[in-house]
């Protein structure tokens, strides 16, 4: 092997330094949360006073937190289901269109991707109020599903990039109905995209504050509850909550990655 040139070594070191810096700035807030969530003092401050798990105990016993968690889970699951169904259908339709007007419609359906959440929230609230629809959990589900469905669309269309449409025609020629042809020819290809989109929509809904704040009334989701609680000061219990959510999100992401890799290996492909 030829000796590495000095410029290449400097470039490798610079790249490594940038990687370490990126990891530090990404993980530092989470580490700070974890450290102060076990500090035996009612305020976050240095030096640390001691180790305690009392804040986690208070967190799991808090009835408001439990109610907010239930609401967030209910809304998140509904949003993920609706976004997955609509996003899959829209993604397939978008991948099939060839005419210019069809592509324009498809692009218009992706506008929530680049529209600020605050704009979507205000627009949704005005639409519901002027239509006489009372703000509730249902309006939150509708608003969030509208905002997060395009992310599922992207996941599905990415899987359809190299799909051989002749497989659908072959399945129909062999006597399969439209649904059966979709089930055997297309679904195995786009399943990782649907799963990824479902999990992404759920996480975005679970952590959403703006859309829930503007389009929901009469209940609290976890983000809106935490916002109301922090206005009188950030207690260690809130830090414990943030730490738990970060850990659960990491576990969910790793589990999803493992499931997607398993599916890809069974099909002899790669995870998109």
Supply the key terms.
272 residues; MetI-like fold; 11 helices; 75% helix; globular
The CATH architecture term is Orthogonal Bundle
Percentage of residues assigned to helices: over 70%
Structural class: mainly alpha
Q: CATH class, please?
A: Mainly Alpha
String of helices and strands: HHHHHHHHHHH
In total, the number of domains comes to 1
Rounded radius of gyration (Å) = 23 Å
> Number of DSSP strands?
0
Estimate the strand proportion. Answer: under 5%
Biggest sheet character: none
Mean of residue pLDDT values: 82
Shape: globular
Terminal CA distance: 34 Å
Q: List low-confidence stretches.
A: none
CATH superfamily name? MetI-like
Number of helices: 11
CATH topology: MetI-like fold
